[in-house]
Amino acid sequence: MNPMIHSIQTNCPAVRFRFSLKDDPYLLGNLVFASVILMILLYSLVFSPDRNDYPVVCIHEKITGMPCPSCGLSHSLSLILRGRIDEAYTWNENGMKVFIFFVSQLLLRIFFSRYYLNYPDSRKQLIITDISGSSLLFLITFMPFIIHIFKWL
Amino acid sequence: MEEVNKNSGQTLGVAALITAIITFVIAVIPCIGLVAIIPGIIAIVLASVGLSQANRADSPRGVAIAGLVIAIVASIMSLSQYMVIGKFADKFPDQIEEIVRDVQKNVVEEIEDASVSIKVENGDEVVEINVDQNKNDKVKTLEELEEGLNEPDDTLNTN
Description:
Chain A is mainly alpha-helical.
């Protein structure tokens, strides 16, 4: 019979995170979301707004010929990462809000994961706070896009 | 072995929940919202399988149910993007006519102000007409000349 590790007592956060990851959906979710956000930021950094070489095109504009509220978002995020804030606003006025959302979510994933590991007694409250806070942040950030959908339905 | 059975369906439920949340974010962005239907369906399938496994093993189902609900809502959002595009397409023909009319008007106005050069060659005979920015003056002069020209009617009467 193989021995199973049910808990591990160590002060090293990296080791605790690695062992908790296998059984804990919350930590696994945080890791995946942080990776996805990092990939989005990397995408914005790799593709240049000056060369206009973005592989993702607006399907909405391709079909209807009319721009949508999220058009120019990739340009806007790339320009913000390059420090060209004024230009970013001209490409998409929601770009800064979306950028703040992604960066804040990345930081929150790290902070909440550390808190989750360090304070096991308050995990339930932490998850509730995370879900409600992140949902609210998401609604505030993406409200113009949601309004666009409901306006045309 | 008992531990494995207790977590049956949990992994699929987590995968479904993560996929569903990412799908939801994609679905609300109008540019790429249409493609969210694909991960949406994947998330629904994952959640359903996870839920059935959890039911059989009598293990916790919360994560799988959350994944299923979010995946369904995200898929509905993605489908609504199709409807939005359909509505746009219905409304668009009137707008496109307006745009074409505006473009035509602008082109005509620009041509009126442009300089035009016409060269007609007939054997050795060459006639060249140049009209520059003062085109209106020349048109006026031409009209004045035409008014002053009272040529007699030289049409032959065949009756």
